[in-house]
Amino acid sequence: MAGSPPPPPSPPPSIDPRSGFCQKTKIFHSLRPAVPLPPVTVPLSVASYAFSLLPSPLPSHPALVDAATGSAVSFPDLLSQSLSLAASLRTHLGLSPGHVALILSPARLEIPVLYFALLSLGIAVSPANPASTPAEIARLCRLSNPSIAFAVSATAAALPRHVPTLLLDSPDFQSLLTAVPSAAAPAEVRQSDTAAILYSSGTTGRMKGVELTHRNVIAELASFFTAQGRRLSPVVQMVTVPLFHAFGFIFCLKAVAAGETAVIQTVRFDVKKTLRAVDRFGVTHLTMAPPALLAVVRVCEDGEPFDLSSLEVITCGGAPIRMELIKRFVQRFPNVRLAQVNNLQLTANLRISN
């Protein structure tokens, strides 16, 4: 029929059309339509790619919000702080592509700014659990060999003494966010360079470091950006998962790249405080682990009076959601979509009929 779009291309004969598995290469391929990506040979960092997706003029709503205090960072401030911090780290600390930065801190509004600053310089971001023991941190340092560590006063003592450390809650670091950037040429970052070194949980053995290239993370952001539809109001994404975890790491980058407001939970998870924040900030999208989802369902089943009318989607990751919990969720929240994250990808939108 004239004007009809062409049918999607058929998978190559060697790829199973049901599973996406290629018998020849032993690789699983996505069966979804291809996402447009920049040419792999073009030098491009995750930060440059993410910022290129933002509209002009920049969004007027906040980029980052502290769920506990309501403090906010605008999109212009986020970009300027990232640029100032990157210039300061490069000029004063000599950080350059190929270096690794270990980050040992609870969630703070400075963390996404720090991520983008480091990524723009080609420095591998390596966030770790701030509750790790000194012995565990020493092992992570042997794995990633960081050139610098970023911590807070409460976590710095766990770091090995030989690793130079900058405290995020110090006046010195805060001054780097507003320093006048130098006129030095931007760092050239290849998409094949390492963007992040994330750590496994250690549930099946000792923690391991997993490298993600800039190309890996760019592909993640591109898939989210391509999938988002047109909206009358911006997404307000509340991130309750740790920012050092792959789930939180990707989602805080994704929220900025997509021009959303990221509400960061900067204190230990408390289900009632979380649900009050949903009401206070008009949260539309909520990210959490299955135990937190169970806590939400239980509290709401008990009839606690929370206004969750703004909520559209809850995204769960870190572990599979049990079918019993899915059924309870759908019965309590029939108008809220439940999404399961697996291996950093949104693999399914889970709906169960009552």
From TrEMBL:
GO terms for molecular function: 4-coumarate-CoA ligase activity; ATP binding; trans-cinnamate-CoA ligase activity. Its EC number is 6.2.1.12. This is 4-coumarate--CoA ligase. It catalyses: (E)-4-coumarate + ATP + CoA = (E)-4-coumaroyl-CoA + AMP + diphosphate. It comes from the Eukaryota. It holds the Pfam family AMP-binding. GO terms for biological process: phenylpropanoid metabolic process. It comes from Cocos nucifera. Residues 59-340 form the AMP-dependent synthetase/ligase domain. Coiled coil: none annotated. The keyword Transcription regulation does not apply.
